[in-house]
Amino acid sequence: MSSPDNPDLSTQPNGQASADRACPACAKPLPSNATRCPNCGLALGEHQRCPHCHAIADVEPSAEARFVCSVCGGVRIPIEDAKVVRSAEQLELLKRATAGRSARSVWRIVAIVVASFGAFSALVLWVTLTFAPPPTVAVVVAVFAVLVPLAFSLFALQRSRACAVGLEPAIDQAWRAAAADIARSRGGDLDAAELAKQTRIAEREADQLLARMSAESLLTSSVTSDGNLKYTLTEAGAAPAKPLPAAR
Fold it and tell me: pTM for this one?
């Protein structure tokens, strides 16, 4: 039953908001098919669920990963259309990219911490040798104690760089899988404008992505009657993405 005194709990005259479509955060009425609250900006819908932390949350821009979850920081690809079904390949690649990004950060922190300890040990050794030279054996032991953490910090830095090497290919493949998922939901056809709209990237970036997929025979290109470039999934594009080699 409508209640003019309480618009949050009534069906609006235009039929776009009702009691069962109130925002769970601010309790304001929501337009039909809303993917976010126009009042508080809360992300809505299962298509906004993070594959890493499983929270329904929005994404935020990232310089190295394009987009990450605003809750857990996992690598994500926003897709605005709730009807698009994300493939297992896309989700697996996003998880692999997130794991690589986390591993790189951990190894980098380890490298910094251990290098700092080695530098402090070197400072202590220098002060000791300057003011109270110890026996030769003690000096050898002290030098060894300085070199070990410095050597391990170099190892940790190399591991961090190795993890970074596999990060970009995983993200690129995930975006290819996402573009294929969007095209599949539209009968196999996709253009740069639609891809940009669905994934919040610039149309120029969307066109570059589709062009690369076309060069890899994942898509075929054609010109529509109105002069726009349209891409269509090939059998290779519709097939599961090839797995990346395991990180060493």
Answer: 0.73
